[in-house]
Amino acid sequence: MKSLQILHLEDDAFDADLVHREVARLDVSPVWVNAASADEFFSAIAAGGFDAILSDNRVDGIEGIQALKVAKERYPDVPFIFVSGNADPRWAEHCIEAGATDYVAKEQLWRLPSALKRLNDARESRRLTTLTRARAVLVDAVRDLSLARSVDAIAHIVRRAARQLNQADGATFILRDGDLCHYVDEDAISPLWKGGRFPMSACISGWAMLHGQPAVIRDIYEDARIPHDVYRPTFVKSLVMVPIRAEAPIGAIGNYWAREHEATADEVLLIQALADSTSLAFENVALIEGLERRVQQRTLELEAANKELEAFSYSVSHDLRAPLRAVQGYSDLLATEANPPLEGQQLLFLENIRTSARRMNTLIDDMLTLSKVTRQEMWRLPVKLGLIARDVVNKLRAASPDRQVTVDVDDDLVVQGDAGLLRLAVENLLSNAWKFTGKRDDARIAFRGEPDPAGHTVFTVQDNGAGFDMAYAGQLFEPFRRMHRESEFPGTGVGLAIVRRVVERHGGGIEVDAAKGQGARFRITLPGAS
Question: 381-526 maps to which CATH number?
Answer without folding.
Answer: 3.30.565.10
